Automatic annotation (TrEMBL):
InterPro entries, A to Z: AB_hydrolase_fold
UniProt-recorded Gene Ontology molecular function terms: hydrolase activity
Identification of the protein by name: Alpha/beta fold hydrolase
Gene3D superfamilies referenced in this protein's UniProt entry, alphabetically: alpha/beta hydrolase
Keywords: Hydrolase, Signal
Organism: Dyella caseinilytica
Length: 571
């Protein structure tokens, strides 16, 4: 054999060997491969070392699939290492497990969302066991996961309430459920809940003959993760799910259209829960004002959600209603929405959540809150009618509506009110050129007023003359006319005070240079109701009062004191 032939064969053999080694390397890091090597029986320290090796390799892999697989291997091994007996190793392992889990979720979601369901599923060519732990029923079995820290928090003005810890905070989102009546109390934009995710192996062993596990856990229901003898507080982000809801909401635009007769907000009116119902937590029900929507409560709701103590004690409910009708009709609408919600949530009427309810109302919402806690009087009826109710003729439906609008009692279970920039004695703006324009638009498409007008037509002389002709004719009564200080019915209903035992607080705005003092829409004399448990005046215009930092701090203080004050009023 010639030297040239021999050298050629040696070179060919070396090239073949190199190719085989390269093929082996690619197979080692192939996304569909299980974790290479035999890790059965590894000590916690060795598992941490192997996890660190995978973390170092991951950024240098050939493609996204290989990188995701490397991060997966790192996350599982690092979680195994969290049983370490040395505190420094425990901390290092938990930190690395969180880092690798986050990188894996980031790779798998590709900057959008990761869609998962409970049970086995294939991700990146690899079988993964997805486990939902203590997730709320409202999310169902299929979720969209989005990294919480990827949200800008623009709608919440950059304010994010989160706590560090083990795991990766995400927003767990799902379409509105359809399987039960309670689904009607969730926002139509979808269900958004906080969750914390991480990777781990099958419990109790340092080997990986079984599929890796992707855990999605509710950090509020189960805030601690136990590994061996160690307990790890979960990381959580309670603001991100609310931000997601607000980003998808159309309510900002619909609120104004609801004032001038638009039907869209009327179709989605009702009481809506920001989180799953808890029969042990006190409801804080927020009622927006004229031409507005629950968006006005973004900062305040976020502050309550982000306070660990208040979040543990309270659940936030938002009222959505069309703001074009007169005050008494709006009160009736809101009462119906409350009745509907309680019938679904607590049909037996004995849940602890039924007692100690807090209402917070902005602008006209504060007036509605006061009327919900007041008792109607004969003077109210006489301001509108010249004959007793039992002498009126009309359909049963029309008469029943009339009875509910003018004959009411304090709503059971409410014992604290917070009025924010609320025109308890009307607003002169309702009678100026802007108010007159709003009147011309707002009175249209009010079904309740159509019924009351039919009663007026069927009972000549039974309705006070001032409500039939002139400025206040019954066909043109609206939310705006209700706020004119000398409107006949409102002149009476503004005298109706909260029932005994119901505490109330005034938070009002006063702008420099306004004479008399006013927030630009509501005079201070109208926004400050005598007999309040507390009164705060802030330097803010009418629409900014609910967002004012001092106003928000005052509400938080009221809620912290609420249980003490409620107990003092018990017999």
């Amino acid at each position: 054999m010639s030297c040239r032939t021999q050298c050629s064969r040696i070179c060919s053999g070396l090239l073949l060997l190199a190719a085989l080694l390269l093929l082996h390397a690619c197979t080692t890091f192939a996304p569909s491969a299980r974790m290479p090597g035999n890790y059965s029986g590894l000590s916690a320290k060795d598992a941490l070392h192997k996890a660190q090796e995978w973390a170092a390799r991951a950024p240098n892999q050939m493609d996204d699939g290989m990188r995701a697989d490397a991060w997966l291997n790192c996350g599982v091994l690092a979680h195994d290492a969290m049983v370490a007996t040395q505190e420094a190793d425990e901390i290092a392992a938990a930190s690395l497990a969180t880092r690798c889990s986050r990188a894996y979720i980031e790779m798998m979601s590709q900057g959008t969302t990761l869609n998962v369901h409970a049970g086995q599923m294939t991700l990146n060519g690899r079988i993964i066991e997805v486990q939902f732990r203590r997730l709320p029923d409202s999310l169902g079995d299929h979720l969209h996961l989005e990294l919480a820290d990827g949200l800008t928090m623009q709608v919440l003005d950059g304010v994010r309430h989160r706590q560090p810890g083990f795991g990766v905070p995400v927003v767990a989102a799902a379409p509105p459920c359809m399987h039960s009546a309670i689904c009607t109390l969730y926002p139509p934009e979808g269900v958004f809940r906080p969750a914390t995710v991480w990777l781990e192996g099958e419990p109790g062993a340092l080997h990986h003959d079984e599929e890796p596990v992707l855990v999605v856990q509710n950090p509020t229901a189960q805030p601690v993760h136990a590994v061996g003898n160690a307990n790890y507080q979960l990381a959580e982000d309670l603001s991100a799910p609310y931000e997601q809801l607000l980003e998808r909401s159309k309510l900002r635009r619909l609120g104004w259209w609801g004032l001038i007769g638009g039907q869209a907000i009327g179709r989605r009116s009702g009481l809506f829960l920001l989180e799953d119902y808890d029969p042990t937590k006190t409801p804080v029900i927020m009622i927006h004002g004229l031409g507005s929507s629950p968006i006005i409560w973004a900062r305040l709701s976020n502050a309550i959600l982000g306070d660990p103590d208040l979040n543990r004690r309270y659940q936030i409910w938002h009222m959505v209603y069309q703001t074009n009708a007169p005050l008494l009709v709006e009160r009736y609408r809101v009462q119906r929405y409350l009745d509907t919600a309680w019938k679904i949530l607590d049909p037996a009427g004995n849940a602890p959540a039924r007692q100690g309810v807090v209402l917070i109302g902005h602008s006209m919402g504060g007036v509605i809150a006061r009327l919900l806690c007041a008792q109607s009087t004969p003077a109210l009826w006489n301001a509108a009618f010249t004959v007793p109710f039992d002498r009126l003729h009309g359909s049963a439906e029309d008469l029943a509506l009339l009875k509910n609008v003018f004959d009411f009692k304090p709503y059971a279970g409410i014992d604290e009110l917070v009025f924010m920039a609320s025109p308890q004695h009307g607003s002169p703006v309702a009678g100026d050129w802007f108010g007159r324009l709003a009147q011309d638009l707002a009175w249209r498409h009010i079904p309740e007023m159509d019924r009351l007008e039919r009663i007026s037509d069927e009972n000549p002389g039974a309705v006070q003359a001032g409500l039939i002709s002139g400025t206040y004719r019954i066909s043109h009564l609206s939310s705006v006319t209700s706020l004119i200080p000398d409107e006949p019915v409102s002149a009476v209903d503004e005298t109706l005070m909260p029932a005994a035992g119901v505490r109330y607080h005034n938070i009002a705005g006063s702008l420099p240079g306004e004479h008399p003092p006013s927030d630009g829409y509501v005079p201070l004399s109208s926004a400050v109701l005598p007999g309040a448990a507390s009164t705060l005046i802030v330097d803010a215009d009418h629409h900014s009062v609910p967002r004012d930092p001092k106003a928000i701090a005052a509400v938080l203080a009221i809620l912290r004191q609420h249980d003490v004050s409620s107990a003092a009023n018990l017999p």
